[in-house]
Amino acid sequence: MPSGGARDRAWFDALFTAHSTALYRYLRRRLPAAHGGSTQDAEDLVAEVLVVAWRRREDVPDGAELPWLYRTAGFLLANHRRRVRALPVAELPQDADDAADVEHVVVQDDVVRRALAALSPRDRRILLLHAWEGVTGDDLALALGISRGGADAALSRARARLRTVWADAQDDAPVSTQATAP
């Protein structure tokens, strides 16, 4: 990203090229199909985030564009979730992995979802920004709108709460009846 220069079309083109894929992944992960989200919703939200970035281009901090975009995406996603009510429609994956132990994957996925669902929205957001998006340090602080020390402490507390919830979720997970290969 060019920094310190004019916030013109070239700046925006560079912003788009550098961050649109990361934004799409960020939003797509948070819009699971089972809860009413779609690829189109994620694409629409990316477009909305980029419109906000263009309109507020003077507010986008040099060198911290992606955390600013994630923060903006989080606000727009919250608004989207308030507008959209999910329909209970299940989607089948188009390409099933025959080699995977489906029962184990389903159980493990359910355990992860239950553990994350048991956390506060703030803890979940902090952990997902860090784990899925790779946002750390000053960038995490900027995305959360808090100081670096506050971000480090919040991440530490969220991890501790996840460890507790994870242990409880593992205890509640059903045991597979299939024998596992050595």
UniProtKB/TrEMBL annotation:
Keyword Transcription set for record: yes
Annotated TM spans: none
Superkingdom assignment: Bacteria
Signal sequence extent: none
InterPro entries: RNA_pol_sigma-70-like, RNA_pol_sigma-70_dom, RNA_pol_sigma70_r2, RNA_pol_sigma70_r4_t2, RNA_pol_sigma_r2, RNA_pol_sigma_r3/r4-like, WH-like_DNA-bd_sf
Ranges for domain RNA polymerase sigma factor 70 region 4 type: 112-162
A GO BP entry: DNA-templated transcription initiation
Keywords (A to Z) from UniProt: Sigma factor, Transcription, Transcription regulation
Keyword match Ribonucleoprotein: no
A Pfam short name: Sigma70_r2
GO terms for MF: DNA binding; sigma factor activity
RNA polymerase sigma-70 region domain residues: 15-84
Family note: Belongs to the sigma-70 factor family. ECF subfamily.
Protein name: Sigma-70 family RNA polymerase sigma factor
Organism: Cellulosimicrobium arenosum
Upper lineage: Bacteria, Bacillati, Actinomycetota, Actinomycetes, Micrococcales
